[in-house]
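pasting for ref
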Amino acid sequence: MSLLRPILMLAVVIGACVLTTRFTPHHSAENSGAFNALYMHLMPAALEAPHHDDAGEEAGHGEEAGKEADDHAHGEPLFALSLPASLAIFDYNQDPSDGVQLVAFNLQIFQLAAVLLILIGFAGVPRHMKDGKGDVVTRFLAGACMYVRDEIVRPNMQRAHAEKLMPLFLYLFFFILFMNLMGLVPGSVTPTACIWVTAALALIVLVMMIIGGMVVQGPVAYWKNLVPHVPLGLWPLLFVVEVVGVLVKPFALTIRLFANMTGGHMVVLSFMGLIFYFAGNSFSPMGYATALPAVAFGVFIMIIEAFVAFMQAYVFTILSAIFVGSSLHPEH
């Protein structure tokens, strides 16, 4: 039974990689170049239903007819939710004839996988906290929970509020950590390398800052306490500055996590692209000569990326705790 939980967690990661490989269109380097084809893996891709060659045969026996059928079949979303025209900002379907549609992306597969990893991994943590029994995964996650509690949340806010908001910060830490780590697996996608994902996480922090501050201090007192005791003539100017400061904090969270995760992947892909670039431009001997150092540097960057995956989860969580704590307790 001690191996069941790690096996299930490994199966979730492998299953997510298989699903995204099967339902995500592949990028060819023939027309776009090796580097562009590799960098496209950093971009969110809509999940597409697999299509067969039967459509090409039915459209005609010529080469052009088959190509036309393939082009028509390309881009059929695996999941699409029709939306009213007023929500066109959420339309990611490239075919305008389909109207406004909300489609599923490969990022969602790994976001759901991260949630499943949390549910599976933490299944034995409550029992371990009571009797001290559990496997390696349980002990590691329980220790990580206590670290988040004692080193991140409690030092940055009052004890009563820290206990109430503990589930939020535990969710942020492990959700980001699992998404970061899964992004290191071959064939996977890193959701935190998408600015929309990091912006959504930062938006949660912003809501907690404003709503939490208004609940604890009062709807009027929260906005009043943004500005310390200053001359009345300076109060309007400083109020605008402080409001901008509240909005800048989640923006900094968004850019920091997105830039760090994207930058590391771009370095790894750049080293890999050197191999295909030299091998595909009449420099075959250079391709072989470049392979060994490129792979070595790529592995070295991947090791650093594993450290960055933990570090960025920690940084995002501790900054979130500091920002929320300062909104709840302006005197700090």
